[in-house]
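User: Here's a protein and a ligand (magnesium ion). What would the complex look like?
Assistant: Let me lay out the input and then the predicted complex.
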Amino acid sequence: MSSAPAQTAPAGPAPGAPPEVSVVVPVFNESGAAPDLAREIAAAFRGWSVEILFVDDCSRDDTRERLAALKAEIPALRVLAHGANSGQSRAVRTGILAARGDIIVTLDGDGQNDPADAPGLVEALRAGPPELALVGGERVRRQDSAAKRIASRIGNGVRKRLLRDTANDTGCGLKAFRREAFLRLPYFDHIHRYLPALMLREGYATGFLPVSHRPRTTGASKYTNLGRLWASASDLAGVMWLQSRARRPGGITEA
Ligand SMILES: Nc1nc2c(ncn2[C@@H]2O[C@H](COP(=O)(O)OP(=O)(O)O)[C@@H](O)[C@H]2O)c(=O)[nH]1
Ligand SMILES: [Mg+2]
């Protein structure tokens, strides 16, 4: 009898006809927001072939149980769970590895992104040229504290200047992208802020659309400005190194 590898290896795609879109939502202690968010996502994608994957990152509250209880109400809902807390990017990656759709949508699990914006990003991705691999949201009228908005503006400005990734708001959790393109990127924790730069490095094109933003009404933020600054410094240096080590073949032909 084989043992259960899912404890250590990420879950792979489930069998059956693949959906068009897989929505991936990382959650950590978001019991207050996650159930209504799942309902809002289902409503936003009504009429689409979609699956909704919530990835619980070893929450200490009952996020996972509350989501699992919704599966009867929302048949498209899947609930994955980590055995140890490993961060937002790892949870996103777990969801993408388990996803069956060619197009991935990510959004934050606290309800600050509005799911109603998501189908528009998918449509823009589909309407674009074949090399367009990502359409990211850029939050207008951000509903966060002044300190967070200022830190984010500075962080985004420095990142954009150093990486030349043309993105104004990579911290926005709402993004639509091609699963295959994501899987070609090197993984590291906090990669979710560097997807545009890494997609460009791989030769893909990226685009951005304005999206709305809502205040957090329940739970607590998982990030501090100081913690983000610390991680961003080493991540930026790492991504700059990756950029310096990727020559572009300038198109590939087969004889
Ligand atoms: N899976 C997982 N998700 C996290 C973790 N930290 C934050 N998140 C999720 O990432 C999203 C953004 O985090 P949040 O705390 O709202 O950041 P803020 O909006 O910048 O204050 C939310 O969906 C969180 O639930 C984590 O350690 N693991
Ligand atoms: Mg938030």
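Summary: Strands lie at 21-27, 50-56, 77-81, 103-106, 132-139, 175-178, 205-211.
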